[in-house]
Input
Amino acid sequence: MDFVNYLYIAIRAALDAGKSIMDIYTDPEADFEIETKADNSPLTLADKASNRLIVSALSVTPFPILSEEEKEVPFEERKQWTTLWIVDPLDGTKEFIKRNGEFTVNIALVNKGVPVIGVIYVPVRKELYFACDTLGAYKLTNIDSASQPSMDEMHRKAARLPAALMHQGVVVVASRSHQTEETTRYIENLRKKGQPVTLISSGSSLKICLVAEGSADIYPRFAPTMEWDTAAGHAIAKAAGCEVYHIDEKTPLAYNKEKLLNPWFVVKAVSPIS
Output
């Protein structure tokens, strides 16, 4: 089945959600109304506003929605879902609270455990990453909810990923908020192979996008993430010739599992780095 017709719905939902987030982010009087969730991660007014918009927009499709901010659906029910949306309405809530701009809206469509559509919108930068398994992966700049381009127009204007970006040695992207000893060890092992290693930091799902677009070669993640943190980025990376592997660097991550916690993983190009 070709899911490309659902891509535009997901893009519009992400752009509108981005506007709702920016309305709060740019309001000097705004109270983010920060709450703490059961896992100690923060939840803000912006997460909730974005989630409402996305769930409403995606509800016109025939597929159920698994969102970070929705009530958890029991696996007994979820395991019947062949195709579903996986949503993080505001990925990088910590970055949002710090006002560093490195937060995203993530929307993925997953079929039989594999992400087939991915949309990641960076509201502060007005950058949109989008992909479908039958279309490829793309990046579009200077776009927000006020823009109303057709899908054809976006496809024409966007840059195909990966871009031909030149850099020396191996560029590793790591988390701005979750550096671990294992990450440091992984980077040291790369250095031992004799290539110069450059380390760059970023927040939220932007790290996966940096590998997909060619700005970075590898993103190792040795810290907890959930399926909604990676599903959209995984679809984009996959359509750009990369993969999100377990740390064996052979087995791709799967989605709509009984436990929604991801294992540790590595994002890299499918062809080995020479």
Q: What stands out?
A: The helical segments are 7-25, 45-58, 75-78, 93-98, 151-157, 181-192, 206-213, 227-239.
